[in-house]
């Protein structure tokens, strides 16, 4: 079988989700696919459930590869393992706790071939316990415009709603940054869109991005008063890549991006030390706080921190604690 799409599915302790993941993959209408499951050293029954569920579909003739990590290495390295074993013309992605409609890869592959594109992206759903929100991703079909949209957050930085020719990865030696598991997909997406000769938008939603899983990496950051070092390093990588390309004029967008990995310190900080840390991370971006969508009181606290006015911050933290 000539593989049109290699679908990479990294997973870690996904026992509650992996069976449904397999079912929606083997229901895909595009038959020329291979599924590459990367087990990032799960400690639950994920692997057993995966193998038992795949066995149900033994007659389907799909190519399945299972890669087992001897130690937990994180999402970025797991994605690289999947890429190293992919043989398809294109690369698609599925997170083990999300789900997809049966026509996703057929429709996206058809659009990619029809438009002679290197990347196709589509709309998606944010899926909650009690509802689904349709997230439209319509944007200029120009690579450089899309890079601006990715950095601003107008376009999803993740790869789950995108299909990419594998040659864009291989020709430009694009890999995920090992050990840096926040914002690593945005860092890769920026590079992919830069090198893509043509990109195309598909106005349809087939991917259901689950937002209620409490143990996901993104959910674990909500309410945290820490800045993730991997996220900081990936933003540095994005900034360095953009700076190295004279045809990308995204100075303000990069400064606003630098504020994101330290936002938790500003919003959830409970000590003056947290605000001092905020001030020291990407200090060149601090003045851009006024251009964010944050509520005004956070902007004022940021201004105080940037000017070392710790007394007002102490008073604000005391009042916040008293109100609680």
UniProtKB/TrEMBL annotation:
Transmembrane regions listed in the UniProt entry: none
Glycosyltransferase 2-like domain: residues covered: 6-169
InterPro entries the UniProt entry points to: Glyco_trans_2-like, Nucleotide-diphossugar_trans
Pfam families (UniProt xref): Glycos_transf_2
Protein keywords: Glycosyltransferase, Transferase
CDD domains tied to this protein: Glyco_tranf_GTA_type
Name assigned to this protein: Glycosyltransferase family 2 protein
Organism this protein belongs to: Sphingobacterium ginsenosidimutans
